[in-house]
Write a structure and sequence with these properties.
- Two copies of one chain form a homodimer.
- By secondary structure, chain A is of the alpha/beta class.
- In chain A, about 35% of the residues lie in helices and about 25% in strands.
- Chain A is built from eleven helices and 14 strands.
- Chain A has helices at about 15-25, 80-90, 100-115, 130-140, 155-165, 180-185, 195-200, 215-220, 240-245, 280-300, 320-325, and strands at about 5-10, 30-40, 50-55, 65-70, 90, 120, 145-150, 155, 170-175, 200-205, 230-235, 250-260, 265-275, 305.
- In chain A, β10, α8 (about 215-220) and β11 form a beta-alpha-beta unit.
- In chain A, α1 crosses α10.
- The longest helix of chain A is centred in the C-terminal third of the chain and has 21 residues, at about 280-300.
- The two termini of chain A are about 15 Å apart.
- Chains A and B meet through α1, α3, α4, β12 and β13 of A and α1, α3, α4, β12 and β13 of B.
């Protein structure tokens, strides 16, 4: 590995994802963490590996940072933060509102080009690694079907929807792939699967004393857009059990492409993640992507990009020669 | 998808792999097959979708072909064919003699640069897609272990080794991953596994009438470098059963990266192929790679490359805009 200067990283946002990137950068000997930007009072943040800095000060870090990893949420933050920060820095984000990705890409691309910066949007695992596997699977097997199964994992959106019901004190919802459906897909059957046949939903719910459990169960399983199209189980548990057994954020899933290369010759391509911690894995992907951004900058690129545009060697700290000798 | 001219493909070599590429190009509406070069008498080849052409005529196709897919074997063909053909064409090969990859890369790179051509070496699934997943898995999870399991699939080298034993008329050898070991890896245990613990070998053997089966079995299971380090089963079958039940060339396997993103937080990344036909899948990968070569040429690149260097969008016939809208 040729000696390079460390890649200087900043983080914007210090929630679960920001803390995960902090850990991943700390685990990467070729990187150094310079600052963690925050909208909160920096004095209130217990950061581990770099000082917390008020977000308004970010502009003073332009010459000190190579890549800024944007750790806000898609719903309210990244739509403005990614263009704003791409004025100052090369950036990477995990924008995941699928319907808005083309508009987000266009907005970020314009800013990136004006400022001669590189911005990789929508990194992580879905979008991100799952997208990459959809693309490669479909490119190799043009005559076939693609399936995505998610879980077993916590869906924050569904957990939040339960928490908004009167009488509910706490809740965690797991999205669970239907194993029988997944096995049919892996066997190359190329089945047509309804929403209900692909995933089921498990809810663990804490309610107020004397709450009407049957009414709450009905409200959950019949909730449109969230639960009514699925087989949903509701288990009432104590607040203690919720915090002891359901505090983690596991997730994962599979992308499966099955296709025929000639009549009756079936090929099955599958990619699978089983994650103890969704934010820590997403943070690890964003950190490897930040390394790729620094390589794209070195190669003279500017503009917005996605995982589809990144030569895979750019994710690695290892030299091209060593990669060919060791991993091919 | 913007309208592009078809990518004009030639194939060199018309064995199992050449026939597979012929099918894959035929399945790709953005490509057209121009010629199939052969060392044999072209009149003896029953090609399906393009004329067979004597290999010495290849030089007359320089202006008619965009990418030549090299379908010879690594042991005796590609070491000379890839440099020779890269003088004439942009090329892709499936060179898979791991120890010789750095030297092959250097030789092909020199020719490619001299002739302003692009050559992608060592495409396919291993090397190829498996290499890509080792690279990405290790880049995202720097603290972890990588495992490769092969099979269940036919190993030509091991089948050939059995066929060389006196009294053996025919043989097929399957490499089989040890399911218990694979499950331990997928559970994130990060076990140390010996050769014997990872794979076993199943041999289906046809012998001459009156052959000494016990002696043949002993010679197989004790054969050094091939079988002595494995648990090997030998089943004697009829020639009819061999041709009815063991004529296919299934293969596949898994690349698994497990790692910790923080103390006790285990993440499992796995990629799996289950292939009815090893050559047809390899041919499909080479064909998608030929598309990528044409994109690299259009981007002004020259030299030798591997799967590590290819932006994934280059494998796809779909435009960047559509990929972002549909697959991210």
């Amino acid at each position: 590995m040729s000696k390079r200067s460390p890649i200087r990283i900043a983080i914007n946002g210090y929630g679960n994802l920001g803390r995960a990137v902090e850990k991943a950068v700390h685990n990467s000997p070729d990187m150094e963490l310079v600052a963690i930007f925050t909208r909160r009072d920096p004095a209130t943040l217990a950061t581990q590996h770099a000082p917390a800095v008020a977000i308004d000060e970010a502009k003073n870090y332009v010459d000190l940072v190579d890549v800024c990893v944007l750790c806000g949420g898609s719903a309210t933050d990244l739509g403005t933060q990614t263009p704003d920060f791409t004025k100052l820095f090369h950036t990477v984000d995990s924008f995941d509102t699928h319907a808005k990705i083309p508009a987000h890409f266009a907005a970020v691309d314009a800013v990136a080009r004006e400022n001669s910066h590189v911005a990789v949007i929508s990194s992580g695992w879905d979008p991100g690694l799952f997208s990459l596997n959809r693309l490669i699977g479909e490119s190799i097997l043009p005559r076939g079907e693609t399936y995505t199964f998610w879980g077993r994992g916590v869906s924050q959106g569904h957990s939040d929807a339960i928490r908004r019901i009167d009488g509910v004190v706490g809740a965690v919802q797991y999205t669970v792939p239907v194993e029988e459906a997944k096995q049919r897909v892996l066997a190359g059957e190329a089945p047509e699967l309804s929403t209900r046949e692909k995933h089921r939903r498990e809810c663990f719910v804490v309610v107020e004393e004397n709450a009407d459990q049957e009414s709450i169960r009905d409200q959950i399983v019949n909730m449109e857009n969230y639960f009514s199209d699925y087989d949903t189980t509701v288990t009432f548990i104590s607040a203690e059990e919720l915090s002891n057994n359901h505090a983690g954020m596991p997730h994962g899933g599979s992308v499966i492409r099955t296709g025929q290369t000639s009549e009756g010759v079936t090929q099955v391509y599958s990619f699978d993640l089983a994650l103890d911690s969704n934010p820590e894995f997403t943070g690890a992907v964003l950190t490897a992507t930040a390394r790729a951004v620094s390589r794209m900058v070195a190669a003279g690129q500017t503009g917005a990009y996605t995982v589809f545009d990144i030569p895979p060697a750019y994710y690695s700290p290892v030299s091209a020669e060593e990669l060919r000798a060791q991993l091919l």
